[in-house]
Amino acid sequence: MKAKQICSVILALLLALSALTIAPAAAEGWDGKTATAPAGSGTQDDPYLVSSAANLLWMSQNIKKGDTVSNAAAGDDYGPSFADAWFEQTCDIDLNGKSLRSIGYYYANDKRMAAFGGNYDGNGYSIFNGSIVSYNTGHEFNVNWGHGLFGTIYGATIQSVVLEDLAISGHGVTGGIVGRAVASVGAAADETFNVVENCVVSGCTVTAGYVAGKINASDKGKYFPGGYMDTAGRLGGVVGMAYGTTVKNCISSAVLKPVGGYNMVGGIVGSAGFGVIVDHCAFTGRIEASNVYTEGDATFTTLSETAYGGIVGFISPYNMGTQDNSAIGKVQVTNCYNSGAFQFLGENGTTTATYWGGILGGINSLNPIAATEDEPYPYLMENCYNLYAETSAESLKGKPDNFRIGGLLGSAWCSAGANVGTLYIKDSSSVDVEERHYSGTNEYRHQINKTSAGLYPVEPVMNGEQSTVTTKTADEILALTAGIDEAIDSALESAIEIKAYQASKTSEDGRMSFRFLYAVESLDWSKIGIEVSMNGATLTEEGTTVYTSVLGYNPETGEDETYTAESLGASYLAALTLNNIPTTGTYTFEVKAYAVESFGETEIKNYGTVCTVTVTDGQLTIQ
């Protein structure tokens, strides 16, 4: 991830030694209507430079409208828009309380799409203060439509995008960063066809529901096998529906609100189809599920079978608008954890099954994939952990009892003797939950039918006679997730880089002060700070200020010079001054910088390089 560039001219915020809260960039005053082409030509060497909400709206408006054409008329003209184009976000973008329409929104086939096909690098900057809405609500409730910042992508890479405190909504397939990540069956099924990586959805609400008048009157409130509910009800904190896609190093603390019996809801990905990898992701938010749908003054209770998962709602490689058993490709969820909560806020009376799993909601008759030496487990959950201790008393509150609940996987089903695949779970753990229905363990629940290979639809990977799938306490699991946090953190960005530039002077009373200059790179951290100890004792100095340029002493040249954030490849500079240091004796200072990002109730603290400073009789040595 690239270091941020400075959008404002001067940052002049006072910093206490322990913490600094960074104020958001000044509002741009976007009117919600103005669209402006970004600077740049869109090549890799000269990318489009996205610096305003008006630039984002320009992107939205320049997606080809594939929903308005037939296959014969479309030809190649209605493939992905901005294919092979490059975009870079150059600063935080304030939507000024206005609504931004999804960038891309439709896919029927390779010659009828309104999809983004380029490369977008958010550079860790935020998009905040507003809402993201459907590009077009005037359509039936079906799987062709996608909603989110990027409503539909095809052959795209979306990286380092940060969404903060936004209201994101859609009807049909909806996700925070991407609604639908689409790939062609067979030809483009590789998991790297689409890439969504290093993204954060923080403090957002993502709501998916129905639009008045867009469901057939005879279908309202019913269970529709193979109908609207099965094909369109997808909601994900990062991606709503994924095919041929890698989702990696993403964190969501969003509140997900599926309204009216959405089929597949996941904290990170709603449904994972063929060729999908979900790796190093964490969900710390909340799913508020309901089977109630209100249209005008009327309220309907839908009876749709539904799966909710902390990371992925459902593995569904067989369905992309129509049933297609040629859609074959591995699906793997690895190095992920869930600490997000689940609440069912609907009504009694559901006669069809509802599933919840801390990592994966459910699976059903997976397409068979032959194991190989290189790929022994095409369907795999590995090194995944659930920290949410679901109890029906808390989450279901006496609601329908036909829930299938497991700590890692809520439900696995297949017909007896069916030629289908098996999901393997390896080196994964959950806290104790109130497991419900079916057979299995606290970690996974499955129906008693076996496949044609004599296996259950879900099986643990064994270490000799010992299962590698276990129940652990929260403290035990937290120790295991620390490595995942560290890897995600490292991928998102090294929080702070400390440059050992300093200035020193001796005062008249025989005491001295010295100053350190820190070049800081970060995401939009909720706070940054510095920790200083002297001879092992913590100090409580104050007086650090944040600048875009600072006059400092360069020990290499022995001269004062002006340092700028840009010259040091940073977002901003932080200068710490320690005063009243005696000029006699030896003192050792340990200086550490840190940054904190909050995701719900979870705080991730990143430390930068530690400087050790030794002062001996007024002479400084920095290591």
What is the CATH domain class of the largest domain?
Answer: Mainly Beta
CATH topology of the largest domain: Pectate Lyase C-like
- The CATH architecture designation of the largest domain is 3 Solenoid
Radius of gyration: 26 Å
In one word, what is the shape? globular
Percentage of residues in helical conformation: under 10%
Indicate the mean pLDDT: 78
Q: In total, how many domains does the architecture comprise?
A: 2
Which class of secondary structure composition applies to the elements? mainly beta
Given the structure, what is the number of helices?
Answer: 5
- Strand residues, percent: 35-45%
Describe this structure in words.
It is a single chain. The two termini are 27 Å apart. A hairpin with a 2-residue loop joins strand 45 (462-463) and strand 46. The strands form 10 sheets. The protein has a 24-stranded parallel β-sheet that branches. A 7-stranded parallel β-sheet has the order 10-14-19-23-29-34-38. A 7-stranded parallel β-sheet has the order 11-15-20-24-30-35-39, with no helix packed on it. It is globular. It has 623 residues and is mainly beta. Helix content is 7%, strand content 44%. Mean pLDDT is 78; it is low at 1-28, 220-230, 319-324 and 494-501. It has 5 helices and 58 strands. It folds into 2 domains: 31-489, Pectate Lyase C-like; 495-622, Immunoglobulin-like (Sandwich).
